[in-house]
Amino acid sequence: MKPILEAIDVRKAYANHVALSGVSLEIPEGSIFGLLGPNGAGKTSLIRIITQITGADEGEIRFRGERLNPGHIAEIGYLPEERGLYKKMKVGEQLLYLAQLRGLSRSDATARIKSWLNRFEIKEWAGKNVEDLSKGMQQKVQFIATVLHDPKLIILDEPFSGFDPINANLIKDEILELRKQGATIIFSTHRMESVEEMCDNIALINRSRKVLDGPIGLIRDQFKTNTYEVEGKGKLILVHPDFEVVEQKERENGHFYARVQLHAGVRPNDLLRYLIGAVEVEAFREKIPSINEIFIRRVRETMPETLVEETA
Amino acid sequence: MASKFFLIAQREYLTRVRKKAFIVLTLAVPLLLAAFGFIIAKVASSDNDTTDVVEVRDESGLNVASRLASTPQLRFVQATGTLAEAKKGFQKAKHDGLLVLPAGLDVEKPEGVQFFGKGNISLKKQGAVEDALNKVFSDLKMEKSGISQEKLDRLRSEVELKAISLDESGKEADSNAKATSLTAYGLALAIYLFIFIYGVQIMRGVGEEKSSRIMEVMLSSVKPFDLMMGKIVGIAAVGLTQFLLWGILSYGVGAVLTPMLVDDKPKTEMVTKAPAAAPASADAPQSSSAKMDKAMSGSAATMNPANRAGGMFSALGSLPVGTILFGFIIYFLGGYLLYGALFGAVGAAVDDQTDTQQFMFPITMPLILSYIVGVSVILRNPDGPVAFWMSMFPLTSPIAMVIRLPFGVPMWQLALSIFLLILGFIGTVWVAARIYRVGILMYGKKVTYKELGKWMFYKG
């Protein structure tokens, strides 16, 4: 699919550190894109460049092929990690104000605010001051403010923080619904399970550089270690010319769990054939790395110190 | 972009104007001012309205008692009975004092005159009685030297000074230093208060925005410069509204209260408006403007009050009103915008309101300094070197130049000062916008001046 947003060789430096160096990305239209990375990796810098809070030192950002410009503000919705609203303003007025700043007309904004407040069943809050709402309520208002102007690109930085599981689910459904309606979502989070659940593509940034990106399925394939999990009854021999038992756990009644890594060129069927002869197989599945594992592995690999350790 | 700027200014304006505190303050200040003025005026007028009645027991045989002239404030009546009876009698009759002129009083050397009063005798009362007596005795002395009463009346005159300012070229103009000073003082005070009150509001507003963490959302919609200027302009509108309402309400309250003060003299109106001048009204039933003059100068000359007031107004009329008004608007707006940007930058630079102190100081110092030096030095010597330099430097010129304006300022100086003010304005807004842009997204960092300096050169 055609990218809605492209970052081309983006570089951004601050007084005493480089936040982004040579970062290029393509975000396909209509996808949910996970922007991952440890704290301080440069994610927020990239987001701030996309939202035009700051500008890139070098490189450029293209929105639907056009160089990013203030005209695109109305097309982008942004929910920052640092949430905030004007405390002394009423919910309805606040939403109206933010929507108008995003280029919505007064009448359009009023109609949409009404429908969103209904949708979240919080109509009665419109006349309340923001400071009188609970934190979770404020988050809901903020989420509405982010999507009110019907942006084509929605950037959500840790959207689930501060929500209880029920409301987090509500927000998740809304995100999926927005995607269904054609919006593209950039999703920055440390919660890997929601990345796994929702994202189509991810990019991993570490130490100002992009260290990994692509469709989530491909990345997982790429990080497969040809390892299989086996459960059964009996006992596996530990050394074999075709494979290696990385881990074996004894369970009650002679059952076991084992992780087996195949040597290059060995097929899973070869292992299965051996297993059938040796033990009673109860379960056999490929061990697919979680995004969490990939994340940790990739971040470790791209840390200069650990790199030195590994090569030494 | 322009409409966003308007939206921001509008929000800043509306949220403030609708606050309870704004409404209360706007209503309360004129009422308090009026109440204050009302009390002072009441006290002052009651002081003037009451007539002190003094009984006179004349044993001198010089017929002094019949010669003592009564005034609206002081009435003399004949005492009856013996001295002891009179001493008791005046108190019973609720009279205020008893004047006793002993037998054998010498006209040339009147000694032994006694005055009995209820409780402590005020200096003012004593003075009034002394004045009346002095007049009688001087008349007596003149008569003794052969001058008739008719001649005496003709001899009395009331002198009135007409001050004319003479400039170097010899051109004459009606001058009234007090009117000019008062105008200068009033204009400077208005600018000073406006910058201070609403400048601090800008700083607070930015601080609140920063601590509520809404900046990132705002900045993804608008440019920091628009955000800053929108706030400054919105708050300026709040200030203008408040000042305007104060003016209208004070006038209205004054108009309502004036008839309530029994006094039909024009002074009450002035007193309610300018409480500061009120204490002076206690001394004599003169018209208000003249009294304000007296209050300011402590002038001893007694002049015809009506003429003095007229002179004051004609002097006001002779001031360069057009230039003053033009200059006031320029310096009022220029000064506010210049300082407003700086206050905004301070609000953006710090995390915590309590940290503002170190950055507030260099901003408030020139402001306070120009006010203090302005009303002490410049007001006395509006053409001196201090006045000149301070009215050129953009941080002090809004107050310094406005003080000089009523005294007349050479055109080239005014032009140069305005030019420098505009340059200063552009400069400070540039600096402030840079500090603001970086500062509003900077959290948890204790900012130093060195740091601020670096922010100047950050790229967008």
Describe this structure in words.
The complex is a heterodimer of chains A (312) and B (460). Chain A has 312 residues and is α/β, with parallel strands linked by helices. Chain A folds into 2 domains: 3-218, P-loop containing nucleotide triphosphate hydrolases (Rossmann fold); 225-286. Chain A is built from 10 helices and 14 strands. Chain A has a 6-stranded mixed sheet with strand order 6-7-8-3-9-10, with helices on both faces. Chain A has a 4-stranded antiparallel sheet with strand order 2-1-4-5, covered by helices on one side. In chain A, helix 2 (91-101) runs parallel beside helix 4. The model of chain A is unreliable at 306-312 (pLDDT under 50). Chain B has a 4-stranded mixed sheet. In chain B, strands 5-6 form a two-stranded antiparallel ribbon. In chain B, strand 5 and strand 6 form a beta hairpin. Chain B is elongated, with a radius of gyration of 31 Å. Chain B starts with a helix and ends in a 5-residue tail after the last helix. Chains A and B meet through helix 2 of A and helix 1 and helix 8 of B. Chain A: This is ATP-binding cassette domain-containing protein. Chain A: Keywords: ATP-binding, Nodulation, Nucleotide-binding, Transport.
Give average pLDDT of chain B, whole number.
Answer: 77
Outline type of chain B: elongated
Number of helices of chain A: 10
Average pLDDT confidence of chain A is 88
Largest sheet of chain A: 6 strands, mixed
Major sheet strand order of chain B: 2-1-3-4
Major sheet characteristics of chain B:
4 strands, mixed
CATH-defined superfamily of the largest domain in chain A = P-loop containing nucleotide triphosphate hydrolases
Strand content of chain B: 5-15%
Pfam family, one (chain B): ABC2_membrane_3
Protein name (chain B): ABC transporter permease
Transmembrane segments (chain B): 21-41, 182-202, 243-262, 313-339, 359-379, 386-405, 411-436
Membrane topology (chain B): Multi-pass membrane protein
